[in-house]
Write a structure and sequence with these properties.
three-stranded antiparallel beta sheet, ATPase, DUF58
């Protein structure tokens, strides 16, 4: 498999004059590192697609959601009373006390939207409009603003053994915390990146039944996750995985390509002749074929997986990720 975790093609990250409306960057964005104003400006896109409702009083009400579990949070246990649901018996307390006890639950007032950010080095690369890392930050920002529009709490985390997750909060305050974290995480590869699998394990501990989970990942990172990991997440949550891709990866030119490290070390330059049939076949198997197989494998495990190119509109995935739609 051909990978270049610390390299990029020689030349610009995006063509001059790319239009923002077609996925291009604005004049004050370089496409290499995300900026907070850039992510804040995406609020209008997410709100235009939001499902915020207003009741007769004019106050905002909770957006409807297809919860995959009870949507309830454990409150306490008390002595069992006739008529209590036997499914909620607290067996541990019953065994310790010798008397039957039942669990009490309280309804979660707000759904949780959790953004999991893959920070693999392969994401910090791009040949059209912006780096894949910048597109990941923008897609995460769209998800955060969508959560605000839907009345959700919003949180975020990445694969790290030391960096804490962004705590869940509602409204613009919660969204801005997530946006600030995305800017920091996707400015450059974190030195303490522990991988996507670690991030998903942290997510499993934070999620409650009925939550929404958005995973921003390089296709190779998602493909490396053990198959047994996903069913535990999809059983009670809506899971969407965005696979960040670049046009060069999916459809390379029939030509000689030169790659160089970000530091510009000429001795580490790599030349790939994609006009050669064997080299081109290996490239397509590694990238386009890998994305297709990963999407199919995730779909078989109940995960809604989508490929998002770095030159596509950053909100293009929203409608396609709604439950029941392709």
């Amino acid at each position: 498999m051909i990978r270049w975790p610390a390299a990029r093609p020689e030349g610009r990250a995006r063509p001059p004059g790319a239009a923002a409306g077609q996925g291009g960057a604005r004049a004050d964005e370089d496409g290499v590192t995300p900026t907070l104003p850039e992510l804040i400006a995406l609020r209008g896109l997410a709100h235009a697609r939001g499902r915020v409702r207003r009741g007769a009083t004019g106050l905002r009400t909770q957006a409807p959601s297809a919860l995959r579990g009870r949507g309830m949070e454990y409150a306490e246990s008390r002595a069992y009373a006739i008529g209590d649901d036997a499914r909620h018996i607290d067996w541990r307390l019953t065994a310790r006390s010798g008397k039957p006890h039942t669990k009490l639950f309280q309804a979660e007032r707000e759904r949780l939207t959790l953004v999991v950010a893959d920070t693999a080095p392969a994401l910090y690369f791009g040949t059209r409009v912006r780096f894949k890392s910048v597109q990941a930050a923008r897609a995460g920002a769209v998800a955060a603003w969508r959560a605000v529009a839907d009345g959700d709490r919003i949180a975020a985390l990445r694969g790290s053994e030391s960096a804490p997750p962004v705590p869940a909060a509602s409204g613009a305050r919660g969204a801005l915390r997530v946006l600030d974290a995305l800017v920091r995480w996707y400015a450059r590869p974190p030195e303490d990146d522990a991988g996507l699998e670690v991030a998903l394990e942290h997510a499993r501990r934070l999620l409650r039944p009925g939550s929404r989970l958005l995973v921003l990942a390089d296709p190779a990172s998602a493909a490396a996750i053990p198959a047994a990991r996903w069913p535990a997440l999809t059983a009670h949550h809506q899971v969407v995985v965005l696979l960040l891709t670049d046009p060069l990866e999916m459809a390379p030119p029939d030509a000689l390509l030169a790659f160089a490290p970000a530091g510009g070390d000429a001795a580490a330059r790599i030349d790939l002749d994609l006009a050669a049939a064997d080299q081109r076949r290996r490239w397509q198997e590694a990238f386009a074929g890998g994305v297709e197989s990963t999407v199919a494998a995730l779909a078989a495990r109940g995960v809604h997986a989508l490929a998002l190119s770095c030159d596509a509109p950053s909100d293009a995935w929203l409608g396609a990720s709604d439950p029941g739609r392709r």
